Recover the amino acids of this structure.
Protein backbone atom coordinates (compact mmCIF):
# COMPACT_ATOMS: atom_id res chain seq x y z
CA UNK A 1 0.00 0.00 0.00
CA UNK A 2 1.67 3.27 -1.05
CA UNK A 3 2.13 5.92 1.60
CA UNK A 4 2.89 9.53 0.76
CA UNK A 5 3.59 12.32 3.22
CA UNK A 6 1.01 15.07 2.98
CA UNK A 7 1.49 18.02 5.37
CA UNK A 8 -2.07 19.12 4.70
CA UNK A 9 -3.67 15.75 5.43
CA UNK A 10 -6.19 15.86 8.28
CA UNK A 11 -8.97 13.75 9.70
CA UNK A 12 -12.21 15.72 9.80
CA UNK A 13 -13.93 13.36 12.25
CA UNK A 14 -12.14 14.68 15.35
CA UNK A 15 -13.93 16.87 17.90
CA UNK A 16 -12.51 19.20 20.56
CA UNK A 17 -15.49 18.71 22.86
CA UNK A 18 -15.84 14.94 23.15
CA UNK A 19 -14.35 11.60 22.25
CA UNK A 20 -15.18 10.16 18.84
CA UNK A 21 -15.60 6.38 18.61
CA UNK A 22 -13.56 4.92 15.75
CA UNK A 23 -14.52 1.26 15.89
CA UNK A 24 -13.20 -2.11 17.13
CA UNK A 25 -15.67 -1.98 19.99
CA UNK A 26 -15.47 -5.72 20.66
CA UNK A 27 -11.70 -5.52 21.21
CA UNK A 28 -9.63 -4.49 24.23
CA UNK A 29 -7.22 -2.02 22.66
CA UNK A 30 -3.83 -1.87 24.37
CA UNK A 31 -1.76 0.23 21.92
CA UNK A 32 -2.33 2.88 19.25
CA UNK A 33 -0.01 4.59 16.75
CA UNK A 34 -0.64 7.07 13.95
CA UNK A 35 1.36 7.45 10.75
CA UNK A 36 3.69 10.45 11.31
CA UNK A 37 2.90 12.19 8.02
CA UNK A 38 -0.36 10.63 6.89
CA UNK A 39 -2.81 10.85 9.84
CA UNK A 40 -5.49 8.88 8.03
CA UNK A 41 -3.43 5.75 8.74
CA UNK A 42 -3.96 4.45 12.28
CA UNK A 43 -2.67 1.25 13.87
CA UNK A 44 -4.29 -0.41 16.90
CA UNK A 45 -3.03 -3.40 18.89
CA UNK A 46 -5.28 -5.54 21.03
CA UNK A 47 -5.12 -7.55 24.23
CA UNK A 48 -5.53 -10.80 22.29
CA UNK A 49 -2.52 -10.21 20.05
CA UNK A 50 -4.04 -8.64 16.96
CA UNK A 51 -2.99 -5.52 15.04
CA UNK A 52 -5.52 -3.58 13.01
CA UNK A 53 -4.95 -0.82 10.45
CA UNK A 54 -7.26 1.92 9.23
CA UNK A 55 -6.45 4.04 6.16
CA UNK A 56 -9.53 6.28 6.42
CA UNK A 57 -9.26 7.95 9.85
CA UNK A 58 -10.84 5.01 11.63
CA UNK A 59 -13.95 4.59 9.50
CA UNK A 60 -12.95 1.01 8.60
CA UNK A 61 -10.32 -1.40 9.92
CA UNK A 62 -8.39 -4.35 8.51
CA UNK A 63 -6.76 -7.12 10.54
CA UNK A 64 -3.07 -7.16 9.57
CA UNK A 65 -1.51 -9.35 12.31
CA UNK A 66 -2.88 -12.13 14.51
CA UNK A 67 -0.36 -14.18 16.49
CA UNK A 68 -1.39 -13.80 20.15
CA UNK A 69 0.00 -11.97 23.16
CA UNK A 70 -1.05 -8.50 24.24
CA UNK A 71 0.35 -5.88 21.85
CA UNK A 72 2.01 -3.43 24.23
CA UNK A 73 3.46 -0.88 21.78
CA UNK A 74 3.48 0.02 18.10
CA UNK A 75 6.31 2.24 16.80
CA UNK A 76 6.57 3.73 13.31
CA UNK A 77 10.06 4.44 11.96
CA UNK A 78 10.38 8.27 12.01
CA UNK A 79 12.38 8.34 8.75
CA UNK A 80 10.71 5.51 6.83
CA UNK A 81 7.04 5.09 7.80
CA UNK A 82 6.83 1.85 5.83
CA UNK A 83 8.79 0.25 8.68
CA UNK A 84 6.74 -0.54 11.78
CA UNK A 85 7.65 -2.34 14.98
CA UNK A 86 5.50 -3.88 17.69
CA UNK A 87 6.10 -5.82 20.87
CA UNK A 88 3.83 -8.18 22.73
CA UNK A 89 3.54 -9.96 26.05
CA UNK A 90 4.16 -13.28 24.29
CA UNK A 91 7.94 -12.61 24.19
CA UNK A 92 7.73 -11.28 20.67
CA UNK A 93 9.12 -8.36 18.69
CA UNK A 94 7.82 -8.01 15.16
CA UNK A 95 8.63 -5.78 12.19
CA UNK A 96 6.93 -4.85 8.98
CA UNK A 97 8.74 -3.21 6.07
CA UNK A 98 5.67 -2.68 3.90
CA UNK A 99 3.38 -0.56 6.05
CA UNK A 100 1.89 -3.49 7.94
CA UNK A 101 0.99 -5.88 5.14
CA UNK A 102 3.49 -8.53 6.24
CA UNK A 103 5.34 -9.11 9.52
CA UNK A 104 8.33 -11.12 10.70
CA UNK A 105 9.67 -11.97 14.15
CA UNK A 106 12.89 -10.09 15.05
CA UNK A 107 13.78 -11.30 18.54
CA UNK A 108 17.08 -13.10 17.82
CA UNK A 109 19.53 -12.30 20.61
CA UNK A 110 16.93 -11.31 23.20
CA UNK A 111 17.30 -13.75 26.08
CA UNK A 112 14.15 -14.21 28.11
CA UNK A 113 15.63 -15.31 31.40
CA UNK A 114 13.36 -17.19 33.83
CA UNK A 115 9.93 -15.50 33.77
CA UNK A 116 10.98 -12.53 31.63
CA UNK A 117 8.76 -11.02 28.96
CA UNK A 118 9.14 -8.03 26.67
CA UNK A 119 7.86 -4.81 28.22
CA UNK A 120 9.00 -1.80 26.17
CA UNK A 121 10.81 -0.72 23.01
CA UNK A 122 12.02 2.62 21.71
CA UNK A 123 13.82 3.92 18.64
CA UNK A 124 16.70 6.32 17.95
CA UNK A 125 15.17 9.21 16.00
CA UNK A 126 18.38 10.13 14.17
CA UNK A 127 19.61 6.57 13.60
CA UNK A 128 16.41 4.52 13.36
CA UNK A 129 18.34 1.34 12.64
CA UNK A 130 19.15 1.44 16.39
CA UNK A 131 16.40 0.34 18.78
CA UNK A 132 16.21 -0.62 22.43
CA UNK A 133 14.14 -3.31 24.14
CA UNK A 134 13.51 -3.75 27.85
CA UNK A 135 12.37 -7.01 29.42
CA UNK A 136 10.78 -7.67 32.81
CA UNK A 137 10.23 -10.74 34.94
CA UNK A 138 10.57 -10.64 38.75
CA UNK A 139 14.10 -9.29 38.56
CA UNK A 140 15.20 -11.26 35.50
CA UNK A 141 14.68 -8.40 33.02
CA UNK A 142 17.43 -6.89 30.90
CA UNK A 143 18.06 -4.12 28.35
CA UNK A 144 18.93 -5.05 24.76
CA UNK A 145 19.84 -3.00 21.69
CA UNK A 146 20.09 -3.52 17.95
CA UNK A 147 22.00 -1.65 15.24
CA UNK A 148 20.30 -3.35 12.29
CA UNK A 149 16.57 -2.73 12.71
CA UNK A 150 16.12 -5.78 14.91
CA UNK A 151 17.86 -8.43 12.84
CA UNK A 152 20.10 -9.12 15.83
CA UNK A 153 19.87 -7.86 19.41
CA UNK A 154 22.64 -7.65 21.98
CA UNK A 155 22.45 -7.13 25.75
CA UNK A 156 23.89 -3.95 27.20
CA UNK A 157 27.13 -5.21 28.83
CA UNK A 158 27.80 -4.82 32.51
CA UNK A 159 30.23 -5.98 35.16
CA UNK A 160 29.30 -7.39 38.54
CA UNK A 161 29.69 -5.37 41.70
CA UNK A 162 32.15 -7.84 43.16
CA UNK A 163 34.97 -7.28 40.69
CA UNK A 164 36.05 -7.09 37.09
CA UNK A 165 36.70 -10.80 36.91
CA UNK A 166 32.99 -11.57 37.05
CA UNK A 167 31.50 -10.23 33.85
CA UNK A 168 28.28 -10.79 31.96
CA UNK A 169 28.26 -10.27 28.20
CA UNK A 170 31.30 -8.03 28.55
CA UNK A 171 34.14 -8.10 26.01
CA UNK A 172 36.37 -5.91 28.14
CA UNK A 173 35.84 -5.29 31.82
CA UNK A 174 38.75 -2.92 32.37
CA UNK A 175 36.31 -0.02 32.59
CA UNK A 176 33.28 -0.76 34.71
CA UNK A 177 32.76 2.72 36.06
CA UNK A 178 29.01 2.75 35.40
CA UNK A 179 25.69 1.55 36.80
CA UNK A 180 24.83 -0.83 33.96
CA UNK A 181 24.24 -3.70 36.40
CA UNK A 182 21.10 -1.91 37.66
CA UNK A 183 19.48 -2.61 34.29
CA UNK A 184 19.16 -6.21 35.56
CA UNK A 185 16.19 -5.06 37.59
CA UNK A 186 13.32 -5.19 35.07
CA UNK A 187 13.33 -2.37 32.48
CA UNK A 188 9.74 -1.12 32.42
CA UNK A 189 10.11 2.16 30.52
CA UNK A 190 12.44 3.78 27.99
CA UNK A 191 12.61 7.31 26.61
CA UNK A 192 15.04 8.38 23.89
CA UNK A 193 15.61 12.14 24.11
CA UNK A 194 14.29 13.71 20.85
CA UNK A 195 16.71 16.65 20.91
CA UNK A 196 19.76 14.41 21.32
CA UNK A 197 19.20 10.64 20.89
CA UNK A 198 22.52 9.92 22.53
CA UNK A 199 20.62 10.60 25.77
CA UNK A 200 18.29 7.86 26.97
CA UNK A 201 16.36 7.42 30.19
CA UNK A 202 15.31 4.03 31.55
CA UNK A 203 13.00 3.22 34.42
CA UNK A 204 13.56 -0.03 36.31
CA UNK A 205 11.06 -1.70 38.58
CA UNK A 206 12.76 -3.79 41.23
CA UNK A 207 15.31 -1.25 42.44
CA UNK A 208 13.04 1.70 41.61
CA UNK A 209 15.75 3.66 39.81
CA UNK A 210 15.89 6.06 36.90
CA UNK A 211 19.00 5.47 34.82
CA UNK A 212 20.43 7.86 32.25
CA UNK A 213 22.81 7.19 29.36
CA UNK A 214 24.59 9.90 27.35
CA UNK A 215 26.23 7.59 24.81
CA UNK A 216 23.34 5.74 23.17
CA UNK A 217 22.97 3.17 25.89
CA UNK A 218 26.54 1.95 26.36
CA UNK A 219 27.04 3.41 29.84
CA UNK A 220 24.37 4.22 32.39
CA UNK A 221 24.25 6.35 35.53
CA UNK A 222 21.72 6.14 38.34
CA UNK A 223 19.66 9.21 39.22
CA UNK A 224 18.99 9.09 42.95
CA UNK A 225 15.31 9.37 43.82
CA UNK A 226 13.56 8.41 47.08
CA UNK A 227 10.92 6.31 45.33
CA UNK A 228 10.14 2.66 44.82
CA UNK A 229 9.68 2.23 41.05
CA UNK A 230 9.31 3.89 37.68
CA UNK A 231 6.43 3.27 35.29
CA UNK A 232 6.49 5.77 32.42
CA UNK A 233 8.59 8.65 31.08
CA UNK A 234 7.79 11.59 28.78
CA UNK A 235 9.58 14.72 27.57
CA UNK A 236 8.14 18.22 27.32
CA UNK A 237 7.55 19.57 23.83
CA UNK A 238 10.48 21.98 24.17
CA UNK A 239 12.63 19.03 25.30
CA UNK A 240 13.76 20.88 28.43
CA UNK A 241 11.97 18.68 30.97
CA UNK A 242 11.27 15.02 31.64
CA UNK A 243 8.16 13.84 33.44
CA UNK A 244 8.24 10.61 35.41
CA UNK A 245 5.25 8.60 36.58
CA UNK A 246 6.23 6.38 39.51
CA UNK A 247 5.08 4.58 42.57
CA UNK A 248 6.29 5.56 46.03
CA UNK A 249 4.88 2.39 47.58
CA UNK A 250 2.61 -0.46 46.52
CA UNK A 251 -0.41 1.77 47.20
CA UNK A 252 0.85 5.27 46.47
CA UNK A 253 1.72 6.69 43.07
CA UNK A 254 3.02 10.04 41.90
CA UNK A 255 4.23 12.31 39.12
CA UNK A 256 7.46 14.31 39.15
CA UNK A 257 9.17 16.72 36.77
CA UNK A 258 12.83 17.56 36.30
CA UNK A 259 15.11 19.37 33.91
CA UNK A 260 16.87 17.15 31.39
CA UNK A 261 20.45 16.81 32.59
CA UNK A 262 19.54 17.60 36.19
CA UNK A 263 18.92 15.26 39.10
CA UNK A 264 16.49 17.64 40.79
CA UNK A 265 12.79 16.81 40.51
CA UNK A 266 9.64 18.45 41.83
CA UNK A 267 6.29 16.85 42.60
CA UNK A 268 3.15 17.44 40.54
CA UNK A 269 0.26 16.81 42.89
CA UNK A 270 -2.42 14.29 41.89
CA UNK A 271 -5.64 14.39 43.96
CA UNK A 272 -6.77 11.30 45.85
CA UNK A 273 -9.94 11.14 43.72
CA UNK A 274 -7.72 10.28 40.72
CA UNK A 275 -4.91 8.55 42.60
CA UNK A 276 -7.09 5.67 43.74
CA UNK A 277 -7.62 4.58 40.14
CA UNK A 278 -3.97 4.77 39.11
CA UNK A 279 -2.13 1.50 38.58
CA UNK A 280 1.46 0.63 37.71
CA UNK A 281 0.85 0.67 33.96
CA UNK A 282 -0.22 4.29 33.58
CA UNK A 283 0.76 6.60 30.71
CA UNK A 284 1.58 10.30 30.66
CA UNK A 285 1.66 12.48 27.55
CA UNK A 286 2.92 16.08 27.48
CA UNK A 287 0.80 18.50 25.45
CA UNK A 288 2.93 21.66 25.56
CA UNK A 289 5.60 23.50 27.54
CA UNK A 290 3.27 24.82 30.27
CA UNK A 291 2.82 21.60 32.27
CA UNK A 292 -0.29 20.66 30.30
CA UNK A 293 -0.47 16.88 30.52
CA UNK A 294 -2.71 13.95 29.68
CA UNK A 295 -2.85 11.06 32.15
CA UNK A 296 -4.29 7.62 31.40
CA UNK A 297 -5.72 5.70 34.35
CA UNK A 298 -8.00 2.71 34.89
CA UNK A 299 -10.83 5.17 35.47
CA UNK A 300 -10.40 7.23 32.33
CA UNK A 301 -8.36 10.11 30.97
CA UNK A 302 -7.46 13.24 32.91
CA UNK A 303 -5.95 16.52 31.72
CA UNK A 304 -3.66 18.70 33.82
CA UNK A 305 -3.59 22.40 32.89
CA UNK A 306 -0.67 23.38 35.11
CA UNK A 307 -2.77 24.04 38.19
CA UNK A 308 -5.61 21.51 38.34
CA UNK A 309 -6.72 18.12 36.99
CA UNK A 310 -9.77 17.99 34.73
CA UNK A 311 -11.96 14.98 33.98
CA UNK A 312 -11.47 14.28 30.27
CA UNK A 313 -13.88 11.37 29.88
CA UNK A 314 -16.77 13.09 28.14
CA UNK A 315 -18.52 10.59 25.86
CA UNK A 316 -16.37 7.57 26.75
CA UNK A 317 -18.55 4.51 27.57
CA UNK A 318 -16.36 3.74 30.61
CA UNK A 319 -12.99 4.71 32.01
CA UNK A 320 -10.86 1.57 31.78
CA UNK A 321 -8.33 3.05 29.34
CA UNK A 322 -5.48 0.78 28.23
CA UNK A 323 -3.72 2.88 25.55
CA UNK A 324 -2.78 6.51 24.99
CA UNK A 325 -1.21 8.20 21.97
CA UNK A 326 -0.68 11.90 21.24
CA UNK A 327 0.03 13.16 17.71
CA UNK A 328 2.05 16.22 16.72
CA UNK A 329 -1.27 17.89 15.90
CA UNK A 330 -2.37 17.40 19.54
CA UNK A 331 -4.95 14.78 18.72
CA UNK A 332 -5.10 12.20 21.48
CA UNK A 333 -6.13 8.58 20.90
CA UNK A 334 -7.09 6.07 23.54
CA UNK A 335 -8.04 2.41 23.61
CA UNK A 336 -10.53 0.91 26.03
CA UNK A 337 -10.89 -2.47 27.67
CA UNK A 338 -13.78 -4.40 26.11
CA UNK A 339 -16.11 -4.42 29.09
CA UNK A 340 -19.39 -2.92 27.98
CA UNK A 341 -17.55 -1.55 24.93
CA UNK A 342 -13.90 -1.36 23.95
CA UNK A 343 -12.31 0.07 20.82
CA UNK A 344 -10.41 3.15 19.68
CA UNK A 345 -11.41 6.74 20.48
CA UNK A 346 -9.99 10.13 19.49
CA UNK A 347 -10.42 13.79 20.40
CA UNK A 348 -8.52 17.01 19.85
CA UNK A 349 -6.89 18.74 22.79
CA UNK A 350 -8.80 21.94 23.64
Amino acid sequence: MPYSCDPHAVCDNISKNEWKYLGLGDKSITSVAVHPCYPQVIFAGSKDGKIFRSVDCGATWDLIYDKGGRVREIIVDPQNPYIIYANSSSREVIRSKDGGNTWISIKEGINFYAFASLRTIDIDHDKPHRLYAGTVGFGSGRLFYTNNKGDLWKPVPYCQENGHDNCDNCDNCDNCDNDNRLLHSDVVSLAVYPADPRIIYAGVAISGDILKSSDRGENWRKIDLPYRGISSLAFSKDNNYIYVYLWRSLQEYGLIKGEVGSENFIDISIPDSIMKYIKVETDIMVIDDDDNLILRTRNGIYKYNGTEWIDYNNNLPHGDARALYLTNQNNVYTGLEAKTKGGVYVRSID
About this structure: The two ends are 33 Å apart (CA to CA). The CA atoms of residues 40 and 299 lie 28 Å apart. The chain has one domain: 30-286.
